[in-house]
Amino acid sequence: MPRMLPEPTPETRHFWEGCKDGELRLQRCTDCDHNYFPPRPFCPKCGSRDVEVFKASGKGILYSYVINHRPRPDMGTEPHSIAVVELAEGPRMMTNIIGCPQTPEALQLDMAVEVVFEKQTDDISLPLFQPAKG
Amino acid sequence: MQPKSVAVVGAAETTKMGKIPDVSVIGLHADAALNAMKDAGLKPSDIDGVATAGVSPVELAHYLGITPTYADGTSVGGCSFMLHVRHAAAAINAGLAKTILITHGESGRSRVGAGGFARSPSSLMGQFEMPYGVTSPPTMFTVPVLRYLKARGYTEEDLATVAVIQREWAAKNPRASFKEPITVDDVLNSPMIAWPFRMLMCCLVTDGGGALIVTSADRAKDFPNKPVYVLGTGESVETPMVSQMEDFTSSKAFRVSGKKAFETAGITHADVDHLMIYDAFAHLPLYGLEDLGFCEPGEAAGFIRDRNTAIGGKLPLNTNGGGLSYMHSGMYGMYALQESVRQMRGIAPAQVEGAKISVCHGVGGMFAASGTIIFTNEK
C-alpha cells in the first residue's frame, strides 16, 4: 500500500517539477521580497501577482514533530516522524525526517537538516529531510 | 451584535451518548433537535431558521420538516456551532428569522451513515501535508506541540495534568464516558499514540449529538426554561494546514476570536465564573488559557497544576470532563456549548454555584478556526 501522493495543480506544478529535478523551489514576491510556501501565483503577504520561483538552499532546522506510533501500512511498520522544518529562507513545511533513528533522542528540536528527494513515481518525488552532514 | 439581544431557550443532547450503533448521523441530529424542541416547548413548525455542520442544513430542514427563512451551513470543524450561534444572533437582530435551531450529530465511533475524513490529493493539504502521513487528528493537531513545550518550558507531565484534572470533573458527571480517577503516571504510562502524546492525552471517539434553539431576548421569557443570554461572540479562521500556522506557540484564530468576544461582551477576565475550552487533545486548554488572556504565556501549565481550574478552583474549566473524558464525537463544540448552557441554567452535574458568566471557546480543524461565545444568565 503506497503512501498518499500529491496531485499537482497548475499553481503548484513548478514545485513538484523541481522535486523531480532535485531542486526545492520556493516563491518570492518581487514587490515586497517575501519568501513563501506553499505555492500560489500571488504574494500571501501583500497580494502582488509579481512573484518569482527560486531554488532554495534545501537547508533548515527541525522546528517541531511527532513520532507516530499508530499502524500506518503506507508508512511502513515502525514508528515514524512527521515533522515541520523551518527553511533557511523562512517558510516552514511539513515533511518526514529520515536517515536517523526515529526517537526523541535522535530528533532534537533546532537541529540542522537538509533536503533529500525520495522518488515515489515517475512524476512525484517527495522532499524529505535528513540530519545535515558536516 | 447587541449583548443580551438573543438567548438560548432550548438545549439538549442526544438521548443516548457513547456507543449508539442503531442511529445514523442524521438520526442523531434529529434526536438532539427533537429533545431541544421539547425542552423549549416547540414543534418543527415553530422553527424558521436552521444551522448545522457535518450534514447540510438542507438535509436537516427536510428531515425535520422545517421550512426555514434562514439557513447556515458554516462548516469549519468542531467550533462550527459557536459560529452558528454567533451568526444566528446577527440574523435574529437583522430580522432574518425568529427561532433558529442549531444541531450536531456524529457517529464518530460506530460510523453509521457517516462520511469519511478524506481530503482531495490536489488540495493544499493533500499535496503538502498528507503525503507525510498527516491524515488524522492525532498526527495533525499534535505537530506544533514539541515547539510549544520547548518555548514555554512545559513538560509531558504538564500535558498529563490537564487530563488528570478533567477526569476529576468527569467523575461528577453521570453521562461522562470515563469517570475512574487517573494519575499523571497513568497518563504517562498509557499507550504511545504520537510522541509526545499518549492515549490519555487524546480525546475519546464516541457517538452523540446536541441541539440549541436561539431566539430574541424579548421572547425568551415566554419559554419553559431559564433563558441563557448571549453576551459576546467572536470567530476567526487561520489556515487549513497546521504546518502553516503563523506561530506554533499561539493560535491566531484563538486570539482574534477571544478578543472579539470579550470586547463585545464588555467584560474582563475577572468577571468570568466558568470556562469551556475545546480539548480535542491535552494541549488545547494550555493554548486556550494563554490565547484568551486568562494566563500569560508560560503560566498556563502552572495555573492548571495549582488547581485553579479544578473542582473548588477560581476558574472551573471543562466541568463536563471535556473531550478527554466526557465525550467527543468529532465536532465537540456543541457539547462545550451544552455544558455552558447547563451551568448558566444552574443544572449542571458539577454545578459551579452562583456562576453568572460562562465563556465557551471552540477550535475547528487543527488550529484552523475558532469561535467564542460568552453566555450569561442575568438579563
From TrEMBL, chain A:
Residue spans crossing the bilayer: none
Classification via InterPro entries: ChsH2_C, ChsH2_Znr, NA-bd_OB-fold, Thioester_dehydratase-like
Chain ranges of the ChsH2 C-terminal OB-fold domain: 56-118
ChsH2 rubredoxin-like zinc ribbon domain: residues covered: 16-52
Taxonomic superkingdom: Bacteria
Name of this protein: Zn-ribbon domain-containing OB-fold protein
